[in-house]
Amino acid sequence: MRETIFVLKTVDIHTDNMKLTSIDKLTDRYVGKPGTSARDQFEYDLDMEILGAIIKDARKKKNLTQEQLGQFVGVQKAQISKLENNTKNFRIDTIIKVLDALGAKVKLSVEFGNKKKIVMAKQSRTRVAG
Predict the structure, then answer these.
(1) First to last CA, the chain
(2) Cα–Cα distance between 82 and 91 in angstroms, integer?
(3) Phi/psi at 9 (nearest 5 deg)?
(4) What residues contact residue 54 under an 8 Å CB cut-off, 6+ apart?
(5) Could you report the per-residue pLDDT of 44-98, keeping only the tens digit for each?
(6) How large is the angle between the packed helices 77-84 and 66-73, nearest 10 degrees?
(7) Which residues lie closer than 8 Å to 11 by C-beta, 6 or more apart?
(8) How far is it, in rounded angstroms, from Cα 115 to Cα 50?
(9) What is the distance between the alpha carbons of residues 110 and 72, in angstroms, rounded to a whole number?
(10) How open is the CA angle 53-104-55, to the nearest 5 degrees?
């Protein structure tokens, strides 16, 4: 469960009364309640956007071009661009290779009901210099 710290101000223009509304309440109202298919898709898309931004930031901190990172992990520059910009679904092994190359610790967990299983935990061994 995510904990949100963002709060938006809304103003009733008829009375000039300010009302604070949390981003979670706005998301519930405009996207859907947790557990609905629309909310699940929204959260998945958001997670993928965040992952892409993390990858892009790490690549830039290592002063690598998308082409250089792609060559290191064995994919085309376009694949790196699409991963960073969340424009395509990717195989999990491609994502893991990219994260591994950037020095990220990768941990994959799967949840069914209230049971959580760590499927993979990996510390990078094949980092690119940066």
Answers:
(1) 34
(2) 12
(3) -95, 130
(4) 104
(5) 888 889 999 999 999 999 999 999 999 999 999 999 999 999 887 888 888 888 9
(6) 110
(7) 17, 18, 19
(8) 25
(9) 28
(10) 15
Other Cβ atoms within 10 Å of 70 Cβ, number: 20
* Two tokens, residue 7: 């709060």
**Where are the strands (E) in 44-90, listed by range?**
none
Q: Which pLDDT score, from 0 to 100, does residue 90 have?
A: 81
Q: How far apart are CA 67 and CA 64, in angstroms?
A: 8
DSSP H or E segment with residue 3:
none
Q: Which helix (H) or strand (E) holds 110?
A: strand 106-112
Q: Yes or no: say if 80 and 89 are a contact pair by the CB < 8 Å rule.
A: no
Signed CA dihedral, 98, 101, 105, 106: sign only: positive
